[in-house]
Amino acid sequence: MTPKQASDVHKARALCGEHGVLFALDDVARAARQDELPVLWVDPGRSLGLCQRLEPDGPLWFVQPGCLLGELEAAGMTAFAELPCHITVASWLADRCLCDWPAGETFRSGVVQASVLLDDGVVVNLGPFGERNRKPLDGARLQRLIPALFQLSAESAARDCRGEVAWPARYRLDALSPAAGHTVNLAHLILGHGGDLGWLEWVVIDERLAMPLAERPYEQRFSVSRADDAGLAAQAGELDMRMKALFDPESRFPHPGQDL
Asked: Which top-level group of life is the source organism from (predicted)?
């Protein structure tokens, strides 16, 4: 399926939920096979490919999921110069390897706000969170989700994982424990989400903040063996399982255990 407008995605998600069909992003570079359930593969498409400044000459860009990374580079965002120019923003933000910033340094993505469609059809707006950003959490779903994620991030499994330079879990719960000098941004929870947590409707990227990944050979970026190598398989697995359950309790999106 290739939507022509955002409402097409909402209708498709509702039908998938009604008929027990997985709703899956179609252009994830490392997408797993889905053999057990029927799947609707959704390509963001060019109709949802807008990329424009929020204000003339301002640093903030409104970007839809079908925008290509090459278009971001052409717009002047040099952080994207070494990334595959032909993949979409949706694919970039779902790819765990391409979003493999060091633990606590998710701010390097440049993402400052994100709108995400969740499993139950609720759209949540994720952005800066903390003393300097007092915008209330809109909606009952977000008011339950975010405190539960903070509680999870305070538990021993998260603390153990946070001690690693390379974040060992699939989902970036370390976004809630940023490096010194940086504040929490809830939008960073969707970095490298694999298409498992929700559907990205749009993001806002600050061109001043976006940075290339630290120089690290591609083969050393995220893999499912990283947690094993660090002796943290149980901790990382617990975080992934519980974070997935909080975002997608009805398992409307692919399960992370199906990664290649």
From this structure: Bacteria
- Rounded to an integer, what distance in angstroms lies between the CA atom of residue 119 and that of residue 6? 15
Task: For residue 210, give every residue at least 6 positions away whose Cβ sits within 8 Å of its Cβ, in sequence order, or none.
Answer: 77, 79, 80, 108, 109, 110
195: left (phi over 0), alpha (psi -120 to 50) or beta: left
The greatest distance separating any two alpha carbons of the chain, rounded to the nearest whole angstrom, comes to 49
DSSP string of 166-193?
A: S--SSS-GGGGSPPTT--EEGGGGGTT-
Please, what are the domains in the chain?
6-258 (3.30.465.10)
Nearest-angstrom CA–CA distance, 221 and 102:
10
Rounded (5°) CA angle 71-77-83: 65
Residue with tokens 């008011």: 143
Beta strand 22-25 pairing with 39-42: parallel
The answer to whether residues 46 and 68 touch, using CB atoms and an 8 Å cutoff, is no
pLDDT tens sequence across 67-106: 999 999 999 999 999 889 999 999 999 999 899 999 999 9
- Give tens-digit pLDDT for 29-50: 544 556 678 999 999 999 999 9
